[in-house]
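Chain A, query sequence.
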Amino acid sequence: MQLSGKGGFAPLFASLLLVANPGAAYDAFERTIPELQAAMACGEITAVELVRQYLARIEAFDQDGPKLNAMIHINPRAIEEAAALDRERAAGNIRGPLHGIPILLKDNYDTHDMPTTAGAIAMAGFVPQHDAYQVQRLREAGAIFIGKTNLHEFARGIETISSLGGQTLNPYDPERNPGGSSGGTAAAVTANFAAVGMGSDTCGSIRIPAANSNLFGLRVTQGLSNVDGIIPLSHTQDVAGPLARSMVDLVTVLGVTVDSEPDNGLPKSFHEYLQDDALAGARLGLLTAYLRTGSPYGEVSKVVREAVGDMETAGAEIVEIDVEGLDELLRTTGVIDMEFKADLERYLEKSDAPVRTLEEVLESGRYHAALEQRYRRSIDASEKEDEYQERLARRTVLAELLTEAMTTHDLDALVYPTLRVKPVAVGQNQYGSLCRISAHSGLPAISLPAGFTPDGIPVGIELLAKAFDDGRLVALGYAWEQVASPRRPPPRTPSLVSDVLEYHFEIHSPSMSGQLRFDRTTQVLHYEFALAPEADREVVDVKLHRGNPGSNGPVIELLGANTQASVAIRNEYVDDLLQGRLYLVVYTEDAPAGAMRGQIKRQ
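Chain A, predicted structure.
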């Protein structure tokens, strides 16, 4: 973790927050950018107070509670900058829809006043001379940068682990990865560390973390996004843009960061595409080959098919199709390995960075071990010029194949899962991505929240359109949001203003009594109980069961022989706990089938 000051995060927060003020009347939790602007306009809250609320959340949930580890650098001037924007507002100078809005940047965006490291120790402390193009546009629009988010080192993977930032965790299940490489941004945005966040997408690095974090993320048509000043991974595949909790937030940021020009077919404002009824009459081509029903694909496929069914109910026409030859082209059109070394080294040289070559990074040892083989593979692949040109040529074939399929079937978009499986456990390599369909063809694609698996893990559904039909994707995404209301914040990162962070329970039965405390941010249940004197026997095991009072239910956790301990409650059983549907059973040597039972009840 790159520290923001000699003493790390703690002294910085003490100086920035002054008073976290979690009891403030206005709660920024889950508010959209237009809602925040309205609140500032009528004096309900100031930009300074907004920044303080978000910093308090970072302190509560990034380095404490679930310890998401999404942030890599905190802007020490965030409150000062917010105060200046508050003064501008008071004087009647409103820069635009982002005036006073706190935003997060993935740490591969150049900033002239904060380090830009790409998560690599080899880049620690490096501060570029200039802002990235999109950073400059956001500043001019009045955005406040809360700080930089962790990423997969040099954006070279989809699990979000780096030598400088470590491993970012998924807010919906910290045992799983958040997707990548923009996983730090996604985890931070879904946990409400800012109003919105910026990521980059070379294959699926906006869409995969959006899917894993119940967010909206658009990969625009290749070439529509200005990536100047963003540390490159592959110049023919790189795009950059926002990850957001709502379509209106996504569109508001796109309106600032994407240039509308006469030859790209876009209107002056993406807001023109926020159409409630855009699904009515839309024709969507469902790629059924990517919806297997067997394990490990079945859970995600079921959620995606249910989402498609809801789109059909909203008026869309669903056409099940197969695009022959698609998989073969996807396997032979990727060029990240071949472009990364040269693209990175051009950036390092131009920016006067502390390292200049990929070999220097490897020789220094200042990189994460998880990246070594990818770095070495890029060095080897950079010499394969003939294969590189062949792959580029096949991309045209791929784009034509997909466009022809949409034209032949008169489709607005192709539809498929963003990620065909749930996010894997931390430490494993993620598989199941379909990111190449958009990234290799250059066609635009949007990942939308589709729903959740039974254990509370978000699933994304992706829509791909023809070149420069980005606005149509925005329209379909907005209409889906109105129909489904798919946004559900992580239970582990609730509001610090209006939510309960700790629940208390008790057990009362003829054979036992006890007290229990549930920490919502960690989902850990701390318990202590005692047996009645007349029921005092040698305990051999304690088990946690699911069941309503007076009924029997299955074992969900084995607690050992301790009458005082802690246990993590899995996502699927949290509601059971809060609604009084869990009970303890004590097992003894003379009653191996269960001797005593105590229902857990809220105090």
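The chain has 17 helices and 21 strands. The two ends are 40 Å apart (CA to CA).
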